[in-house]
Task: structure prediction
Amino acid sequence: MIPAIEFKNITKQFGNLKANDNVSFAIRKNSVHCILGENGAGKSTLMKILYGAYQPDSGKLFVDGKQQNFHTPHDAINAGVAMVWQHFMLIDDFSVLENVILGNEPISGIKIDFKTAQKKINDVITKFNLGLNPDDKVEKLSIAEQQKVELLKILYRKPSIIIFDEPTAVLSPVEVDEFFNIITKLKDSGNTIILITHKLREVIQIAERVTVLRQGKKVYEAEATEIDEDILGKEIVGDSSFEIASETKLETDGEKKVAILEKAGLSSGGYSKLNDINLVLRAGEISGICGVEGNGQNEIVDILLQLLSVENGTAELNYSSVSVVPDDRIKKGMISEYTIGENVITRKMGFEIALKAKLKKLSEILIKSYDIRTPDYFTPMGNLSGGNQQKAIVAREIENQSELIIFSHPTRGVDLKSSLFIHDEIIHVRNSGRAVLLVSSDLDELFKLSDRLIVLYNGQTVKEYEPLELKSRLKDAESFTVEVGKLMVGAGIE
Amino acid sequence: MENLLSIFSVVFLSQVFRMFTPYFFGAIGGAYSERGGVINIAIEGFLISSAFSFAVVNIFTGSIILSFIIAMLVNAVLSILFAIFTVKLKTDHIVTGVGFNLLIAGLADFLIAYFFKTSSNTPRFEEIPTIEVLSFLPFLSDPLIIVAFATVPLSAFVFFKTRFGLRLRSVGENPQAAESLGVKVRFYKIAGVVLCGIITSFGGIWLASYQNTYSQGMTAGRGYIALAAMIIGKWKPVNIFFVCLMFAFFEALEIKLQIIGSFIPSQFIQSLPYIVTILVLIGFIGKTRPPAADGVPY
Amino acid sequence: MNKKIIFQTGSALISILLTALITFGFLFILGRDPVVIFGRIFSEVFGTGYGFAQTLFKTTPLIISGCAIAICFHAKLFNIGGEGQINAGAFVMALTATSFPGLPFLIILPLSILTGFIVSAVFGFIPAVIKVKKGVSEVITTIMLNFISLAMVNYFLISHFAVESTIRTTKIPENFFFTKLSDFIPSFHGSPLNITLFIALLLALIIYFTIYKTSIGYKLRAIGFNPVASVYMSVNVNKYTIVAFVLAAGMMSFVGLNYIFGYKGFYEYGFSANIGFTAIAVSLLARNNPIGIIFSAFLFGFLDYGGLAVNELVPKEIMLIFQGLVVLSILGVNKLTDNYLKINLERN
Result:
């Protein structure tokens, strides 16, 4: 049988980064196919190629046996490929009906034929049991219902292949089951479903076939019936590339507790972001938080920065000052228009006069002691390379001498040499007696640096490894990786 | 008491509708622009340009129809320019509006001085014969007022029942979503701005035709009041209609009170529309939500 | 960095040139000789002491209001409410100066400046707080406050404080008037140009220094560049939004100094003649740089006085057209040069 989709040697490069590296696999018609991988493994790029948002540098794409070259998402829609985004593209002020028909409105005379539209939409709603009212305004709907509207938009256009980008990330367990019922119905009515997910339980529950991507390459493929959880966990996170700094690791608890979160919970937009977070940060200790992104890491960081406050449970923050290396350096970490020295001045408390000589001195200190490569002292940070931007932010925050320093994905998109340098600095900070929180989705980094490791899943701390336990478990890094990898995707958790 | 009752005379009501018309056309025009996501504070300028060109063409040609058409055309051209700036060049909507208001006011003032050698107003043109369409309702007798009344259901129909309206609103709310469904974002934004210019021209024409002249500063911030009415009216034609009626009532009342004397300062009544607008924006009176992508260049 | 400044100055000059070209063309179509007209303006402004002094006199309030607008623009805040702020502050400034007949000038002056500043600042505080607390854009609120402020001034003036059958306050004592520059430079004779000019220049320098050379300025601009990063860099965005607005609005009241203490001796309704809006153009042309604002304010003062000087050749309102055109050509040219700079930076 001709596959619904076939990727043949797809390669897509951004700068030096190979987002997709010679990827080939096929997706059977009328099946549910899961694509797994860490953030940055290349799933999104591949899907965007399929959806017409990107064009591959080389390789071929076949849809229904026909070679296709989609230039816009519109081309893809016309060929029957549709995508349900993780971030909804809905118009809040519009009714469900208006959102659905936009761009494809049935017309009678000079007005929109609402009757026909209503009937068509109601047919789809009944067929897939979506339980939506076409006249409801989208802004009044829950997240799960909004997702159904997004789906309805697609079904109205009668595609044959539907891609879901982490559809369950925003759903509660009951809603997930409901969603899977819809998927089953879609399949029964002849559609091909592609599911991008991080959750093992879902893969086992719904998938027929699984493909794992890592660092742009296809590394694993299997039928759902023959999935091995251990292999899957290992394939997703890969082999260790950093040496574990075990000789410097602590064996006992750090002394002073600088922050205590107990049963902390938090929701936003009617959807629970955190529930039951238990976390203690201690001076002179690196606490690592590991988990797939979007499981509550950013909320924890924002609570510690006092940008958010907990709604349930308690948060005891005993530190006098806090610094942060944020997860998104361009959006959150720096003023791109400013030089390094100017960024430092902006970050400082209190009034200061900042003449050229002073800014130069401030830049100079950081540039020298943190090995930041820049053409001159007065180059805006936006013009530096990613690694040097990150080093400058790390330098700025460390030099701020705060009691607690949070490193959120400190080496993401940073070259290996700079990464190693940043790791050394993090250990220095710990050794100087300050408390460190390390948030990362890179297991190697977490294993290398953490004195204590907390696994996060769905806004919950599902497992905590104490220093002594962590140190001994890391002696068999391979099996430990598999265990943590499984915890991260929710395997073995009620 | 007698004085108060005289408020509800026919003269008073026709006064209200006279005030109402420029507000309404400015506000409903503004709604076309902002529904498409372009904040248009150049409505003030658009009122000036149309009032001025109507008066000037009328003085030189004596043809009402020609003056009417030219005034509309002038506004169409100016709004296309405004759209080129805000939609194509993606300049800041507010600053562009300020620039247009400065330029248009300057042009009008200059041309008065140039054509008529005075610096304040054009000569008076011949009174426009009133067309008593509905002679039994004297204050509704003017064709432009009837057009205003017709514009309410018409605009509501365009916004909420037609493909054009749906797409116009979609680009003002979420241009990314609209584009992902194949809607041509720029086209609809430009169309909204140009419709705004043309509709607003009726307000300017009304101002000039009622006083049979264009005088410097005759718009007196009416464009901004129109903007306020549009906000309080939540960008909806029917609401805008009633808010403009309310504002016009205030203004007519203020003039009345000035004549008969009152303990309420007229300046307070003058600034009521602005105070109410701020209160509405803060959320003290009702709730208002502009189109989600209003003023965001795309 | 220097390259950037050269580029930006260049784009300002191109905008002026473009505007001049359009104006020339316009005059030409109307059958007036642009060369004669602009020649006359130049000879009036630079050829006579009086003309030069008058130009500087008109430049003074534009420097002050332009710098005030710039403070807000640096934080990406729009202050369209300058007109209302100027009138409220100047009115109260004049009232204060005439309300305490016994007190000496050295007490009255600072007191008037203070009360004027506070009242103007209130009209900046309101939109700032509404923005911070309710997330309402400051654009509409400042426009609305213009009208509210003017109506309030009008009410208090007419019903309580105006000299009968005028729309102005009583006059300050003769010995309260600022020193005129014509006392030192005889050729300025007849022009009310006064020491407010130096106050304005000093303000421009102080604001330049604060914005570009102190941590306050860096934080202020940071919230304009990237409010999210500012939060993570522990800059209090709300506080700086309010501070910027209060300072800018308060400063607007200083426009009154030039008119009240330097020229007429009283506040007159409508004295500001849309300076609050022209200031936006002045600041924009200078890319919000206070030193640049001195020059762009001079250009606008030049046009303002120059228009008067050639009124017999061409209506003086031609200069209003020039002002409007300058704003639009800056917007257009800046967009194009910014795009060019961006492309070039990305390529490097």
